[in-house]
Design brief:
The complex is a heterodimer. Chain A is mainly alpha-helical. Chain A folds into two domains: about 60 residues; about 120 residues, no CATH class. Chain A has eight helices and two strands. In chain A, helix 6 runs antiparallel to helix 7. Chain B is about 50% helix and about 10% strand. The longest helix of chain B is centred in the last third of the chain and has 23 residues. The two termini of chain B are about 30 Å apart. Classes of the chains: A mainly alpha, B mainly alpha. At the A-B interface, helix 2 and helix 3 of A face helix 3 and helix 4 of B.
Chain lengths: ~190, ~120
C-alpha cells in the first residue's frame, strides 16, 4: 500500500465506522483514480474529508436522536428531583420524611465538592437542552436575500419536546429562585448577603 | 402528481442535482460520475470521495438512485466498482429541479439579468 493510500485511510477516521465499512473501499477506489501528488490535490481531499466527515457524523448523531433524547432525560433526573423536592418542602411547606439533597448537601457543605454539586444541578438542564436542540434543530443560511436564516425542526420525538420543556422550566425555576432569594440584597434591604 | 409533489420539495444541493444529471443518460460508477460532472462543469465542480459517497448514500436512502446490477462492459472494468442508475422517482425529481431552475432563468431574463432570446 502506498503512503498516500495510508494517509487517506487515516483521514477516513473522520467518517462514522458504519459509513466507512459501507463506502470506505469505494472511496479509496475513487481516491486512487484521482490521485495527484501536488499540494492542491491534498488540500482538496482534506477539505472534502473535513466537510463531508462532519456532515456524516452529524447525520449519524441525528440517527441516534432518540438515544440522545433519552440520555438528556436521564441527565435531567438529578436537577428535576432537586427542584421538585425543594419546592415541595420549602416553598409549599410539605414536610418530607427525608430530603436526599439536603443529606448530600450536608456532606459537601464547606468543601469544594459543593461547587461541583451546584454546577451539576445548574448546568445539567443547559446540557440537556443543548443536546436535544443540536440534534433536533438544523440551522442553515437562507436561500436568498429575503431569508436570512432557516431553522428547521427535524423529526422531534415526544421525549425531546418533554426534555426541552422540562429544561426550560427548571432553568426558569432556578433563575427565579436566585433572583427572589437575593432580592433583599439587590435592593439594599439586607446588609449581610 | 409526482412532479407537483416534488415542486414543493426544497431545492436539491448542487452535488445531488449534478449526480442526477450524470446518471440521466447512462449508468455510471462513482469515478465515472465524478469525471462526467467535472467534464460538464468544465472543472468548476469536482466531487471528492466524501461528498460523492455521502450524496450517493442519501440518494439511495431516499430512492432517487439504485444500485445497478448489470455492468456495461465487465471485461473492461473493475468488478469492485458499483454502478448506479436513476430510479423513476430520481428522474422525476431531476425534471422538477430542472423546471425550477428554468423558471428562475426565465425570471432572470425578465429582470434583464440575462440577455433575452439567447439560450
Amino acid at each position: 500500500m502506498r503512503i498516500s493510500d495510508r494517509l487517506f485511510q487515516l483521514m477516513m477516521i473522520a467518517y462514522p465506522s458504519r459509513f466507512r465499512s459501507e463506502y470506505g473501499s469505494l472511496m479509496m477506489r475513487q481516491f486512487r483514480d484521482t490521485r495527484g501528488g501536488d499540494i492542491r490535490f491534498w488540500m482538496w481531499i482534506a477539505h472534502d474529508t473535513a466537510v463531508s466527515g462532519t456532515r456524516e457524523r452529524l447525520a449519524e448523531w441525528r440517527g441516534h436522536m432518540s438515544k440522545i433524547a433519552l440520555i438528556a432525560a436521564l441527565i435531567l433526573v438529578l436537577p428535576f428531583g432537586f427542584v421538585l423536592v425543594n419546592v415541595l418542602q420549602y416553598e409549599i411547606g410539605i414536610p418530607l420524611p427525608w430530603n436526599p439533597y439536603d443529606s448530600v448537601y450536608a456532606q459537601v457543605r464547606g468543601t469544594s465538592w459543593r461547587f461541583l454539586f451546584d454546577a451539576v444541578i445548574l448546568f445539567s438542564p443547559v446540557a440537556a437542552l443543548l443536546m436535544v436542540l443540536f440534534t433536533q434543530v438544523r440551522f442553515s443560511g437562507g436561500q436568498d436575500k429575503a431569508v436570512f436564516a432557516r431553522v428547521e425542526i427535524l423529526r422531534a420525538s415526544t421525549l425531546a419536546y418533554l426534555v426541552v420543556g422540562t429544561s426550560l422550566a427548571l432553568l426558569s425555576a432556578m433563575g427565579l429562585y436566585l433572583v427572589f432569594e437575593n432580592l433583599p440584597c439587590l435592593l439594599g434591604q439586607q446588609v449581610l448577603c | 402528481m409526482a412532479e407537483s409533489s416534488n415542486r414543493k420539495a426544497p431545492p436539491l444541493t448542487p452535488a445531488v442535482f449534478e449526480i442526477l444529471l450524470a446518471l440521466a443518460d447512462q449508468d455510471r460508477h462513482g469515478y465515472g460520475i465524478m469525471r462526467e460532472v467535472e467534464r460538464r462543469t468544465a472543472g468548476v465542480l469536482k466531487l471528492g470521495p466524501g461528498t460523492m459517497y455521502g450524496s450517493i448514500k442519501r440518494m439511495l436512502e431516499s430512492g432517487l438512485i439504485e444500485d445497478s446490477g448489470d455492468r456495461p462492459d465487465p471485461e473492461l472494468d473493475d468488478d469492485r466498482r458499483k454502478y448506479y442508475r436513476l430510479t423513476t422517482q430520481g428522474r422525476q425529481t431531476a425534471i422538477a429541479e430542472a423546471n425550477r431552475l428554468e423558471r428562475q432563468v426565465r425570471q432572470a431574463r425578465e429582470k434583464n439579468l440575462l440577455p433575452k432570446g439567447v439560450r
